[in-house]
Amino acid sequence: MSFTLAIVGRPNVGKSTLFNRLVGKKLALVDDQPGVTRDLREGDAKLADLRFIVIDTAGLEDATDDSLEGRMRRLTERAVDMADICLFMMDARTGVTPTDMVFAEILRKKSAHVLLAANKGEGKAADAGVLDAYSLGLGEPIRLSAEHGEGLNDLYAQLMPIADEFAKRQKALDDEVEVDVELEEDGDWDDEFDEGGLRPSEQITETKPLQIAVVGRPNAGKSTLINKIIGEDRLLTGPEAGITRDAISLRTEWDGTHMRIFDTAGMRKKAKVQDKLEKLSVGDGLRAVKFAEVVVVLLDAAIPFEQQDLRIADLAEREGRAVVVAVNKWDVEEHKQEKLRELKEAFNRLLPQLRGAPLITVSAKTGRGLERLNQAILDAYDTWNRRIPTAALNRWLVEMLQQHPPPAPQGKRIKLRYMTQAKTRPPGFVVMCSHPDKLPASYSRYLVNGLRETFDMPGTPIRLTMRGQGDKNPYKGKKKSTPSRLRKHIKGRDAGF
């Protein structure tokens, strides 16, 4: 049975470093300054033959009010309640602090399985701190070095008996459960869906969920929106700007559709990003955009379509992702109809590359408009996966050529012979033509706009490639020369013969 391990402790004791080592990837942000981690980050850990879920938590602070530190502590305490095992980490070089004593007392009351780890235990400088760890009353400490990978064997030795206990418990539960499911012996489970009869959004499964990234400027309400979607306060929120630092991924089922939603850090202008930690946070958010299939660009209704919002939306389009624009904090807007007309006009004027993309007004605080946002995401995903038959494309191409034939630069007539769709996600088309380098970009935009209108592909990025048939000619670019009968004599004379 897979169990859940929560790593808790004071700030800057090495929790995120150990998390990255257990999952085998640099998922969590790591920096020398304390308090980098603020949200709960889950990952699939691997330690020898053990497979379990590990949770990276925020550093425990001695605060119980509604401040940022107090909200971080409550979120960490929630991770302790939901975890099967708690790994309490302390700094072996610093030794036991009064704060460690307080948190150790809390863990003894809350969690049944608590392991003690003395991190940064490499070298003789940590000997005194390791001995001091016995005073916490949590048993023998595990001497670790998350940075260098030392002491993981000792961690495995302490986790193994607890893992066996969970395995026995699960086996007993499985023996009690009666399963009355009849399976067909010749059933083809690899082909579960009939792709010809279902939309791409209807083919989303729990094993292959829809990947969504929520991006925007700081304090736009991204974490609040995701909390409302999943139905619980899973992400840290507050009035302060820039609370989220890591790109946190959460799995959920939203109106029957399995999704994996990425919460990203707020992205400011590049000139304003000077702090090293903020640069790491923005880079983590950009990677989330590259992994996503649908990108929700969240705007603030009070200050929509700022320059940074336009850059974020353009980034998603250049990455080839389906884009949905959502305007948050719509509940505090007084003149809704007038504001909506202004938003649509500004959207069409400032983002022509996303013409026709859905513009949804939502309220992350009250949950208003979430049904329309869900439907817009699914529609954008279907359009992003759309495939058009070659015959329909070529009939459309003939009509477009009759309405507006291509230009003839320098007297060279450009012939567009045929067209086909090469890929989806996003839709990519190839047009075979003569002189592809002479075709102006304005005519390519004319074809792309025609594709959007005729085949109902609003808002999705479209890739159009012009290819010349001469590219297949193996003799293209080679100089043709006629052999001369005197060449051998001339060469011989030049060589001195």
Give a written overview of the molecule:
The protein has 13 helices and 15 strands. By secondary structure, it is an alpha/beta fold. It folds into 3 domains: 4-175, Rossmann fold, CATH 3.40.50.300; 200-384, P-loop containing nucleotide triphosphate hydrolases (Rossmann fold, 3-Layer(aba) Sandwich); 390-472, K homology (KH) domain (GMP Synthetase, Chain A, domain 3). It has a 6-stranded mixed β-sheet with strand order 2-3-1-4-5-6. A hairpin with a 4-residue loop joins β13 (416-423) and β14 (428-433). The longest helix has 25 residues, at 152-176.
**Continuous helix count:** 13
State the fourth-level CATH superfamily of the largest domain: P-loop containing nucleotide triphosphate hydrolases
Poorly predicted sequence stretches spanning 5 or more consecutive residues: 176-195
Structural class per helix/strand content? alpha/beta
CATH architecture of the largest domain: 3-Layer(aba) Sandwich
What's the β-strand tally? 15
Shape: globular
* Count of spatially separate domains: 3
What is the strand arrangement across the widest sheet? 2-3-1-4-5-6
Proportion of beta-strand residues? 15-25%
SSE run:
EHEEHEHEHEHEHEEHEHEHEHHEEHEH
What's the quick description here?
With 497 residues, this protein is of the alpha/beta class.
